Amino acid sequence: MSSENLTKIGVLVMSYGTPESMDDVEAYYTHIRRGHAPAKEQLDELKGRYEAIVGGVFPLRENTNGQVAGLQDKLEQLAPGQYACYQGLKHAKPYIEDGVRQMAADGIKRAVGIVLAPHYSIMSVGGYIKRAEEKAAELGIEIAFVKEYHLHPKLIEALTGRVRDGLARLAETSGGEERVKVLFSAHSLPEKIRELGDPYEKQLLETSAAVAEAAGVKDWQFTWQSAGRTREPWLGPDILDTLKEVAADGVKGVLAAPIGFVSDHLEVLYDLDIEAKAEAEALGVALDRIAMLNRDPLYMETLAESVLESAKGLN
């Protein structure tokens, strides 16, 4: 334990997590299912999706590692020597609790937690915060949290640039004459969040509207994707159904803007780039997708500035 760490503020960077290799997929899926191993068909399907997007190699993990490193670099520029970043994943190692444990082992006494997801839901970001809070209390670390940053000006700027670029690509391929619609999307959650007064849906619509306005987009709508397969109803319509609707309405080009996600992973690379693209093709609709944020400098600044703001609340 260095004396230097006693004054440093730890930054717990949390995300959903992804397996490190094909060998880890079963353990990962079992953790998502709260300790219940998946049936062989379920496991084979998930492995098939990973094989389709990454051929069994996992650059997906590198996206999160890169974002954590990028945030550390940005914090070092803004507040030299004052912050140390740690990673905590929901469903893979290092788990959220491991990240907090490592901070404690390094002598960190004060910390800020931030999730690599701009929009707050009690079922998503709220769950990360609860786990981090409990472990931090147990280990005597004072911790504050960034709960959402869905309207941070630099996040909106980064997304706006990507929407403009995507529309320019679509215009080029169609000669600029076809009707194009922007479909903003995010991971669906169970419908019951509406009864809880959860802000998730409202925040997603706020981000969509802000980006559409900044990019000068008039023809857009919000849709959902990647719903879980459970008995309870999930928020809809799903993007595959929305594609059918917009095609019937005469739309010839769609720009998918998955603003609920911040990096390239399964829900983007498979659910949109493979599944939604195949559906669009069958409907005679050209589908393109905005580039994900990954380590975009504006996104790194969004995270860093949000952390600095949250740290003001620490004793």
Automatic annotation (TrEMBL):
Q: Which Pfam families match?
A: Ferrochelatase
Which cellular components does GO assign to this protein? cytoplasm
Q: Which SUPFAM superfamilies match?
A: Chelatase (SSF53800)
| Compartments it resides in | Cytoplasm
Pathway(s) of this molecule: Porphyrin-containing compound metabolism; protoheme biosynthesis
- Which reactions fall under this protein's catalytic activity? Fe-coproporphyrin III + 2 H(+) = coproporphyrin III + Fe(2+)
InterPro entries from the xrefs? Answer: Ferrochelatase, Ferrochelatase_AS, Ferrochelatase_C, Ferrochelatase_N
Print the keywords alphabetically: Cytoplasm, Heme biosynthesis, Iron, Lyase, Metal-binding, Porphyrin biosynthesis
Q: Which residues bind Fe-coproporphyrin III?
A: Y16, R33, R49, Y50, Y128
Please cite one Gene Ontology biological process associated with this protein.
Answer: heme biosynthetic process
**Class of enzymatic activity (EC top level):** lyase
Q: Which HAMAP family match?
A: Ferrochelatase
Q: Which family does it belong to?
A: Belongs to the ferrochelatase family.
What functional role does this protein have? Involved in coproporphyrin-dependent heme b biosynthesis. Catalyzes the insertion of ferrous iron into coproporphyrin III to form Fe-coproporphyrin III.
Q: What protein name is recorded for this chain?
A: Coproporphyrin III ferrochelatase
Organism listed in the record: Paenibacillus arenilitoris
Gene field: cpfC
